[in-house]
Design goal:
The chain is of the alpha/beta class. A 6-stranded mixed β-sheet has the order 7-6-5-8-9-10, sandwiched between helices. The chain has a two-stranded antiparallel ribbon with strand order 1-4. A two-stranded antiparallel ribbon has the order 2-3. The two termini are 31 Å apart. 38% of the residues are buried.
Length: 196
């Protein structure tokens, strides 16, 4: 299956399991904004087929990048980074997964980063959905404090609401597997094909 076919299939799974639409009442997003649509990516990122597609697509995006690990703010980034780690190992170019804690533990190592990564490694910061980019920026800041070098950010879905621009103030490169525009186009295509 080509990458474009994989992305299309992943978009179908997202529409089926992770996309919600409501005119009344609208959803309240983490940013506090109101929206008629909402993405809860966990039913996709924790699904066997969804995980496999995500791992393969993201591996294709970074296979030539000089990175050794990928991770982001728990919980949204965890299954994505894990999927990438498994697929990358199977394809002979292992990329480790790591977790960025929301709250640093007040005991033990008191580290914000969990995983087999050390200062100086080049990494990818992962997120499931970006709206304002705040959680991604938090992950970038924690990773940098731990001495990791951020090569790029990859998000599963870009809601195209300013988050990309906010993140670009902190890193040079950001990529999205899918955008709101692409998902809405797929939704319109599927809706048009359904019998009325």
């Amino acid at each position: 299956m080509t990458i474009s076919k994989k992305k299309e299939r992943l978009g179908e799974i997202i529409l089926e399991r992770s996309f919600k639409y409501s005119d009344n009442p609208p959803f309240t997003l983490a940013s506090g904004r109101q929206s008629n649509f909402y993405f809860n990516c966990k039913p996709t990122t924790l699904d066997p087929e969804g995980m496999n597609l995500i791992g393969e697509i993201i591996f294709d995006m970074i296979k030539d990048a000089p990175v050794t690990a990928a991770g982001g703010l728990t919980l949204g980034a965890d299954p994505i980074a894990n999927a990438l780690a498994v697929i990358s190992y199977q394809l002979g170019r292992p990329v480790k997964a790591f977790v960025v804690r929301k709250d640093v533990k007040d005991h033990g190592t008191k580290s914000a980063i969990e995983g087999n990564v050390t200062a100086g490694e080049k990494v990818v910061i992962i997120d499931d959905v970006i709206t304002t980019g705040a959680s991604t920026i938090t992950a970038i800041e924690h990773a940098r404090k731990a001495g990791l070098i951020i090569d790029r950010v990859i998000t599963l879905i870009d809601r195209e609401e300013g988050g990309r621009e906010n993140i670009l103030q902190h890193v040079e490169h950001i990529q999205s597997v899918l955008t709101r525009t692409e998902i809405m186009a797929l939704r319109a295509k599927k809706t048009a094909g359904q019998p009325g």
